[in-house]
Design goal:
By secondary structure, the chain is an alpha+beta fold. It has 22 helices and 34 strands. It has a 17-stranded mixed beta sheet that branches. The protein has a three-stranded mixed beta sheet with strand order 20-19-21, with helices on one face. Strands 1-2 form a two-stranded antiparallel sheet. Keywords: Hydrolase, Lipid metabolism, Repeat.
Length: about 800
């Protein structure tokens, strides 16, 4: 039996889909076992970046500690070249546990490698950060280039990669994260070689554990109240021979809040010696994934580096070109000591069983620049670029449409089209913003921090609504199950951060929370409201209501609101991650920051990379991104849905998904393991499994909410008898007659306020936290309900990749500048 769009009661909603074979039966009406698979690769002809290549060995790493250990070993054995490109690269990022109080830093690993191999050449490319973000890229350049002096030869080159977005370039970033060793081994994923990423499966909150010091004691969600000794740190902005000796001896980067590019007239407070106070403050643990690729697809990752490297800062002259171990060919010259690279030779050796396609988000401007500055020999193998590459979004769309049992997503963001059925239409955010006043917390901080007016003035799409199609595609795939007319189990599980990295009194963070909750819950076509619309449509269709289709597409059709939000849990599970610790006599908690950008479908296919679910990453015209789509040819058969019937799975995807679940369920790190979920790990598509996950997450949530009144939640603390939806600052009491004063009081009982840390903030029930199992909690879907926390930053900016707070003196100066302009 073949089911096509015309036979589906959802009508033309799915006309754009290729008809799919639902069931093939023999003469006895028994279903044949299917061994063939759909084509999930992105095949866009000559404009795509890379074809899928088979014969790769792919190894996943689900913690920074494991990834860094393997990377250090690979760097130590490098023979000719090391390519490093990240959004953020810190020379003093911790790579191994410290011994005798000394961290093993990225600087140490690279210095040792060039000292042991006189032929080795290292090329490092961080993003050239823009206001207000501080990534210490200039420090990275200064310190890594100083390795040349210590090695006695020129062996390290650093160039800062500027954004090459198609519009609003100052807002966007070079966001790819990868390392290539000898053009044969590639590491790709979400982990930058920078602060905070060194973590393991225990998600330890102790800031000073494993020798963490300086900015490796990382928590972007709380003020740093401890201090380092000035003799422990260096300021590379004032680098000299003495500083180099201190770096070589083990010093760390000083936190720097000084002069920012383009704002040189603004006074700067200079270096800061602050760090977390490990006696009272928790670090923020990190959840992420990287993969090691050995085989043909490593060539494509290396080629991507060469193209990006060559596109930065050239002018045409005669010059030599670096090849692997130092051979040269004629070409052009660059500014300063920057070297022009050429493509590696085409791969010819297979090492494993994985098919891998290297995918990019790449603006047209970036692609044309890469092409323009390729060597003449390499350009002969390239097509003149036309248009952007948005291959990661297309790959995710392919997987979502072809999913049969379940989808698992871990992502740093979920900001997607939530307004109309066609999320990619050119709808403006101003079309959906009401005159509702700002929430009291938002009003209290309005005008502080980065100036909203500045982002809107500089943006060419200041009020553009989120429009990537991930939300729409997920909703439609769930809708197919709901409308199928036969019982079909299908489920989507999404694990997200509690809130974007940063403090909840930062306007950009509050605005990101606003758009996230609109995308997930409150928007008319949010993910959950799309599910509710399909549930209602099926009810209307079954009752032969003629206009049943209207509820699926009409923004003004509100009949779906009759559907209880809890009914969505049959199809969607939304999770956060959290841990707790006892420091002295106080209990503390912090979110486990989900920085991962991974999608796994049916234990068959996986996408791992740098791309977030937001317009910056998905549209292709903004942030540059790199990801890999992996389909293992090692097929296995497991009963993944508890039906007693086996389904085809693929080894890599299943191994990765099981590793992630065992980690967040506390099994891997043996931290209060959720033993009741061990069967869920084996059978992810069984309804009993996702219901068991929801049960554990709900129970954990209740324990955390009873212990900590300040964490994001559905209802305000103590409002059980008269429930009130929790504000963006959960300690805010919306019933107070003076909202501004209530917001001020609430701010003092939130972790972003320094006074918060003067005393214990846990409740008596904190002793019950021993009952927490694993690290999963339920995402509070009613948090901020009824509030307007849209601070009116340009929507193209608010989905910031890694937000940082603008120093107070900068925001004051910008506000003063605006006042002068208004006066003029």
């Amino acid at each position: 039996m073949i089911v096509n769009a015309k036979e589906n009661p959802t009508g033309n909603l799915f006309d754009h889909e290729v008809p799919t074979i639902r069931q093939l039966v023999d003469s006895a009406s028994n279903a044949y076992k299917a061994y063939a698979t759909e084509n999930v690769w992105v095949l866009n002809g000559p404009q795509q970046f890379a074809l899928p290549r088979y014969g790769n060995k792919v190894t996943p790493f689900t913690s920074g500690e494991d990834y860094f250990a393997d990377l250090c070993d690979a760097i130590a054995t490098a023979q000719s070249t090391i390519y490093i490109a990240d959004w953020m690269i810190n020379w003093d990022a911790q790579m191994k546990p410290g011994g005798d109080g000394a961290n093993v830093r990225l600087f140490d690993v690279l210095l040792a490698s060039v000292k042991s191999n006189a032929e080795l050449k290292i090329y490092v490319m961080p993003w050239a950060h823009a206001v207000p973000v501080q990534t210490y890229d200039k420090s990275t350049k200064t310190v890594f280039e100083a390795i040349n002096k210590l090695a006695g030869r020129e062996c390290v080159w650093v160039t800062l990669a500027g954004a090459l977005a198609d519009d609003d370039s100052g807002f966007f970033s070079h966001h790819q994260k990868f390392v290539v060793i000898d053009e044969k081994i590639a590491f790709v994923g979400g982990m930058d070689l920078c602060y905070g990423r060194f973590d393991d499966a225990t998600f330890d909150l102790k800031a000073d554990a494993k020798g963490r010091a300086g900015m490796n004691r990382y928590n972007g969600c709380a003020p740093h109240l401890g201090a380092v000794r000035p003799d422990q740190v260096v300021n590379p902005f004032k680098f000299d021979a003495c500083m180099l000796k201190r770096v070589e001896a083990g010093a760390l980067q000083v936190e720097y809040r000084g002069e920012l590019p383009g704002l040189s007239s603004i006074s700067s407070p200079g270096p800061s010696y602050m760090t977390l106070d490990s006696t009272i403050q928790p670090r923020m643990p990190w959840q992420d994934v990287n993969v090691r690729i050995e085989g043909p697809s490593a060539y494509d990752v290396a080629r991507n580096f060469v193209m990006r490297w060559n596109s930065e800062g050239y002018h045409v002259e005669s010059q030599s070109v670096h090849r692997n171990a130092g051979s040269t060919v004629p070409s052009r010259r660059v500014r300063g000591n920057k070297i022009l690279l050429s493509f590696p030779p085409e791969p010819d050796q297979e090492t494993g069983h994985c098919g891998v396609q290297v995918l990019r988000s790449a603006p047209e401007r970036m692609r044309k620049t890469e092409y323009s500055y390729s060597t003449f020999a390499d350009r002969a193998n390239l097509r003149p670029p036309s248009g952007k590459q948005c291959e990661i979004a297309l790959a995710m769309r392919n997987l979502i449409r072809q999913a049969t049992s379940f989808i698992y997503i871990e992502n740093q963001f979920f900001v997607s089209g939530f307004v109309s059925e066609l999320a990619h239409t050119n709808l403006q955010a101003s079309d959906i913003v009401t005159s509702q006043p700002l929430s009291a917390p938002a009003a209290l901080i309005a005008g502080k921090g980065m100036a909203q007016w500045a982002t809107r003035k500089l943006a060419s799409h200041a009020f553009e609504a989120p429009k990537n199609f991930i939300c729409e595609e997920l909703g439609n795939r769930i809708g197919r199950t709901i409308m199928a007319g036969v019982k079909e189990h299908f489920h989507v599980i999404i694990t997200l951060p509690v809130h974007p990295e940063g403090m909840l009194n930062d306007g950009t963070i509050m605005t990101q929370v606003h758009w996230t909750m609109q995308s997930l819950v409150f928007g008319s076509f949010s993910l959950l409201n799309r599910v509710r619309r399909f549930i209602k449509a099926k009810q209307l269709f079954d009752n032969k209501v003629e206009d049943w289709k209207k509820v699926l597409s009409d923004v003004n059709d509100l009949r779906y609101q009759d559907v209880d939000m809890d009914d969505c849990r049959e199809y969607v599970t939304l999770l956060n991650l959290r841990n707790w610790e006892k420091l002295g006599d106080r209990y503390v908690t912090e979110q486990i920051y989900v920085h991962n950008k991974t999608m796994i479908v049916d234990d068959r296919y996986a996408i791992v990379g740098s791309a977030n679910i937001n317009d910056r990453s998905m549209l292709g015209s903004r942030d540059s991104e790199l990801a890999v789509l992996i389909a293992d040819t090692e097929a296995e058969q497991y009963d993944i849905d508890g039906s007693g019937q086996t389904k085809i799975t693929r080894k890599f995807a299943r191994t990765l998904r099981m590793a992630l679940w065992n980690k967040i369920f506390g099994v891997t790190g043996n931290v209060r393991p959720a033993d009741s979920l061990r069967q869920a790990v084996e059978q992810p598509a069984d309804p009993k499994s996702w219901k068991a996950i929801q049960q554990v997450a709900d129970a954990n949530t209740a324990l955390y909410e009873a212990a900590f009144p300040f964490i994001p939640r559905n209802n305000s603390y103590g409002a059980e008898d008269d429930p009130k939806y929790a504000s963006i600052w959960p300690s805010f009491d919306s019933s107070n007659v003076n909202p501004e004063e209530a917001a001020r009081r609430a701010s003092r009982s939130m972790p972003f306020d320094s006074n918060f840390w003067n005393e214990s903030q846990h409740m008596p029930k904190a002793s019950s936290l021993a009952g927490v199992r694993g690290f999963v909690t339920s995402l509070p879907i009613f948090w901020t309900k009824g509030e307007n926390n849209n601070m009116r930053y340009a929507t193209s900016l608010v989905a910031e990749s890694e937000p940082e707070r603008m120093p107070t003196d900068v925001s004051m100066a910008l506000s003063h500048k605006k006042s002068e302009e208004d006066s003029a």
